[in-house]
Amino acid sequence: MAVDMEFCLLGPLVVRCGAIAVPVPRGKQRAVLAALLLSANKPVRIDGLAEALWGAEPPRSARVTLANYVKRLRGAFGDDGRDRLRTMPQGYLIEVGASELDVFRFETLTATARAAARDGSWAQASKRAQGALSLWRGQPLADVESEALAQREVPRLAGLRLQALETRLDADLHLGGHADVIPELRHLADSYPLHENLTALLMLALYRAGRQAEAQAVYRQMRHVLNEELGTEPGREIRELHRKILTADPALTLPAPQAGGHRHLRVVPREFPAAGTAGRCRTGRYPRRRAPGPPGG
After folding, report:
1. Could you tell me the fold of the domain covering 102-279?
2. Which CATH number does 6-94 carry?
3. What is the tens place of the pLDDT at every residue in 178-194?
4. DSSP characters for 26-45?
5. Domain boundaries in the chain?
6. SS3 251
7. Are 258 and 152 in contact (CB under 8 A)?
8. Residue 91: beta bridge partners?
9. Beta partners for 158?
10. DSSP string for 212-233
11. Fewer Cβ atoms within 10 A, N terminus or C terminus of the chain?
12. φ and ψ at 263, to 5 degrees?
């Protein structure tokens, strides 16, 4: 491909060629591009594209209409449009570089953040997770008119975002940011009352901030919700954390600060949901949705 482009799906769909915005008309043409980008560098069958645009009962003219949409997209991409958006035996393929699609960059940064956390490199884990989260501009596919894509892809992407948030919050706790992350963790724990890891992070943050009674109250609230909604008890790990908080176990003491010290925490916008497979709790159920809190954290 001769020209580098930028494709953004983590919010309203945006296409840029350098500093120039590439116009993509609203409606089904935009849905075609989104469907291709979500399977970038892989062939997408015509019947799959038709389902994304028209659901289970596409019109008889679907194949011809799709060909026209693809032709217009190639024209919008300029001279390398045909090389980038290729016709395959049973469908179409869009070729996108690793740095050209925000979803690719987000997934890469999230994976490297989680790897850094596993290695105990908490400053790197926090930085990379925050870099991944900064790519989000709002609700994924916000202006793409496709119910099929919204139902399939938005929960998946939002679940990945929740994983990145957990990684960043865990890293910030290791870096001594317990007081800073409490408001954000409260919001997340309220939004996902059955998500035990988020509750555990909030309990630990409160304990390290000298708020032991509040940490115990958070545990009791989660236990009540689990009993009421699922008829189960909290898992072993969070029960053990609660026991350590009750006994003021020295193991919960924050380790000595790492080189570089603690940074001021940046805020991640909340104007979009953060639900999906990453939000599943220990029981395998999806967390109950709550009304979103105010932006910030």
Report:
1. 1.25.40
2. 1.10.10.10
3. 999 999 999 999 999 99
4. SSHHHHHHHHHHTTTTS-EE
5. 6-94, 102-279
6. helix
7. no
8. 45, 88
9. none
10. HHHHHHHHHHHHHHHHHHTS-P
11. N
12. -95, 160
